[in-house]
What we know:
Elements: E1 10-15, H1 21-30, E2 34-40, H2 44-54, E3 58-60, H3 63-69, E4 74-77, H4 84-93, E5 97-101, H5 108-121, E6 125-128, H6 135-145, E7 152-160, H7 179-195, E8 198-206, E9 217-224, E10 229-235, E11 249-254, E12 257-262, E13 266-271, E14 277-280, H8 294-313, H9 321-339, E15 345-346
Parallel strand pairs: 1-2, 1-4, 2-3, 4-5, 5-6, 7-10
Antiparallel strand pairs: 7-11, 8-9, 8-15, 9-10, 11-12, 12-13, 13-14
Helix pairs in contact: 1-8, 4-5, 5-9, 7-9
The structure holds nicotinamide-adenine-dinucleotide (NAD) and (2S)-2,3-dihydroxy-3-methylbutanoic acid.
Amino acid sequence: MAARQTPSIRKGALIGCGFFSVNHLHAWQQLQGVEIVALCDADAERLAVAAATFGITQTYRSAQELFEAQPLDFVDIATTVSSHRALVEMAARHRVACICQKPFAETLEDGAAMVACCKEAGVPLMVHENFRWQAPIQAVRAALDEGHIGEPFWGRVSFRSAFDVFSGQPYLATGERFILQDLGIHIIDIARYLFGEVDTLSASTRRVNPDIRGEDVATLMMRHAHAVTSIVDCSYATVLEHELFPQTLVEIDGADGTIRLGAGYELTIKRRGADPIRRDCAPPLHAWAQRPWHNIQDSVLNIQRHWLQALDEGRDPQTSGADNLRTLQLVEAAYASAARGQVTWDIGGQRL
Ligand code: NAD
Ligand code: 89V
């Protein structure tokens, strides 16, 4: 991608003024060199509340009208998944760079079409896959890169909670798919980020909560290209003495030692024969953030900063549409494996 001339202030619009969008809008306000100049939501009340809260005067009920009326450097799509393909394709037709919330697409076919149309239009496309941008996950990646534990051979990325996510996001209770598509997608992406691409996967799922439609527990075993075996486990049915939402815990075993990201954002690095190294990797609590969401909220700021840097440098963002298709493929393979009684799935697309 050729480096573009950097405008002094990048002008963006946000589509989808729902539950999560306030985090995007606060984070954009905190960042330098960017301004959200317009908002769009089909729901007039949500649009009006967001416009008043963030002092944004240009508002649209229709994305088509937004693109026709506003000269934009980028659009930030924070709607739920069923609208993503149409909105990304609309942005591409108007030659507007695009951020799209996760889950990127309802099907791999839709995702591939979205990547293809942005490529053809020559516009950057990033999936808002923010969990890898959480401060504690970045700290784990840094500990791996520092080489304390030698070659990793095993890992576990774990998210277990009984937090009520349904009150803020009621649609999560009604979909045929739940935890893998909504939360597992983040945890699988972290496993890719830490251990590399996946060759084979097997998964099991189940629903424990009788009041929701989809699965709320999922366990995956994956074999990564560099011979790391990983376990990804997710649950919204796990009642703990100390609720951990939204902490992801990580265990990594290497030839020379171990890395553990434990509860309370404490990182421990133990190298054979050496004293353990302990690091506090608690995320900052921004003025606009609230516990326990502050870890996720800080990661929104981090990924949006990364987007601006990628635009400035004319390079692909880490979680480009093309990159995120690989995470989406693992989610699809996990559903397929679980549906067939935990059969092992070759990520080339074949059942083994
Ligand atoms: P929401 O339902 O509360 O809000 C979505 C908004 O988009 C609604 O106000 C709706 O009216 C609007 N909308 C939908 N289609 C539209 C269209 N075509 N044109 C204009 N407006 C449209 O949803 P939410 O909970 O804010 O979630 C939005 C997305 O963010 C989801 O994909 C969800 O998975 C994701 N999410 C991500 C994180 C994260 O940490 N990355 C956290 C929570 C939610
Ligand atoms: O991050 C998300 O996508 C959210 C939650 C953390 C609740 O799963 O939906």
